[in-house]
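User: quick one, sequence for these tokens?
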């Protein structure tokens, strides 16, 4: 093994003197069930030489711990390699559990370990950013790694003509019949994150045989490494960057509507997954028996638009995807299509498993943090769906920017208070007709978790 991966926590001691992994924010069931009037503030311990983060969690009064989010804290992972400088990683994640807290708790404790293990596999390559990743790790370094694509690759035609370097020609170098794809260092990190999510999902499934791991969870994680922010999202949480008042989305939600065509194609290719109770086609509403033989609007997996088809008996089955917006469901059961866990989830009163339609694969987006000079009010906002259900990206941006502008620039708690302000805006105030936010809109009835991470500290990294 070329190096060592060590989770460490920053405090008054040197970060490299610690050999342990800690969850910095541990919330009791009492704290999670605290109503709005008694919101408690949880300030993440600031990293001495790194990015700082500030978070808030809140659940509606009366909700149980198993119904609420489980959030991992901020920690560092250092990769130690003989003869080279350490690689320092910063990690934040939000896990929104459903049908129990088990999967969210396990993922919050272990996902970062899977990320670290996969990064360790490519650590030597990441430590040499000026060299392209080798195609095959077992190969000895050859000159073709340092030459242009046109010079190092032989076309099939040139090879057949017996050109220099072709099989059988004098001074034959290592054979390269076709051009090799250029793979960036960033894509290796993306691959590590994607494989970490997959391994985490597999581990949850295996551990269910021994432990009581209930439900599933969405997962939104951010990794800061070598000047880049990597945002991996599997679910309906969201992350945005606010830079000079501009909103930069760095994640996308995965819902039955956003992944309709993927789900329909899977059901079309494997109709047995529908248990002869569902149809993969989408209709504007439920089809009635009296409409058999008539033409009705529909959509298939090949379509983004709508067309008409003649209704037959199969179309009377319940649609694979039904509902609209937050009420959209897959197999009349679940409203998110990516996440971890849910291995035993079935359609009510049936033997139809839903897991085949759910993906644990995150979408990973990269933000080149080091290419921008960020100021004190430039932040990354991570939030679970309870926040974004009622506040738009622009509303969140305006709220955070306005709040920070009215704070003392030297106040180390300003980001925590901004996170708390966001939650209070999303929850609203209790009135005669329930919880209401601005413009008398209905406040969020879901539990909410928020990270606000100032980006200016990245410019001070050495």
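Assistant:
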């Amino acid at each position: 093994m070329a190096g060592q991966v060590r989770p460490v926590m920053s405090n008054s001691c040197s970060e490299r003197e610690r050999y342990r992994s800690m969850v910095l924010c541990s919330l009791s069931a009492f704290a999670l069930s605290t109503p709005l009037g008694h919101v408690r503030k949880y300030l993440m311990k600031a990293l001495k030489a790194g990015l700082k983060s500030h978070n808030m969690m809140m659940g509606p009064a009366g909700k149980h711990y198993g119904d609420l989010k489980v959030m991992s804290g901020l920690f560092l992972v250092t990769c130690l390699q003989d003869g080279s400088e350490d690689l320092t990683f910063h990690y934040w994640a939000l896990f929104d559990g459903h049908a129990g807290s088990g999967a969210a708790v396990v993922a919050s404790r272990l996902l970062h370990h899977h990320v670290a293990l996969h990064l360790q596999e490519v650590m030597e390559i990441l430590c040499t950013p000026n060299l392209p990743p080798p195609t095959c790790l077992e190969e000895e370094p050859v000159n073709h790694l340092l030459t242009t694509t046109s010079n190092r690759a032989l076309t099939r035609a040139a090879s057949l003509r017996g050109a220099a370097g072709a099989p059988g020609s004098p001074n034959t170098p290592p054979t390269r019949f076709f051009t090799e794809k250029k793979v960036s260092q960033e894509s290796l990190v993306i691959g590590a994150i994607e494989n970490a999510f997959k391994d985490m999902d597999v581990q949850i499934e295996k551990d269910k045989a021994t432990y009581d791991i209930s439900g599933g969870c969405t997962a939104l994680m951010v990794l800061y490494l070598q000047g880049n922010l990597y945002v991996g999202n599997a679910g309906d949480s969201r992350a945005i960057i606010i830079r000079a008042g501009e909103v930069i989305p760095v994640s996308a939600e995965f819902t039955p509507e956003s992944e309709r065509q993927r789900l329909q194609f899977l059901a079309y290719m494997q109709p047995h997954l529908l248990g002869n109770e569902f149809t993969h086609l989408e209709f504007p509403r439920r089809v009635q028996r009296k409409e058999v033989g008539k033409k009705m609007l529909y959509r298939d997996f090949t379509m983004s638009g709508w067309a008409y088809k003649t209704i037959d008996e199969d179309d009377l089955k319940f649609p694979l995807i039904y509902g609209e917006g937050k009420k959209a469901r897959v197999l009349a059961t679940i409203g998110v299509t990516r996440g971890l866990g849910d291995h035993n989830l079935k359609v009510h009163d049936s033997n139809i498993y839903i897991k085949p339609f759910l993906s644990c694969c995150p979408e990973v987006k990269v933000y080149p943090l080091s290419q921008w000079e960020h100021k004190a009010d430039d932040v990354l906002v991570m939030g679970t769906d309870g926040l974004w259900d009622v506040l738009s990206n622009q509303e969140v941006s305006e709220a955070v920017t306005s709040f920070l502008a009215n704070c003392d620039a030297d106040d180390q708690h300003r980001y925590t208070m901004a996170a708390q302000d966001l939650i209070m805006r999303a929850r609203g105030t209790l009135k005669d007709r329930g919880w209401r936010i601005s413009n008398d809109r209905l406040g969020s009835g879901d539990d909410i978790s928020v990270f606000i991470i100032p980006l200016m500290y990245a410019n001070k990294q050495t």
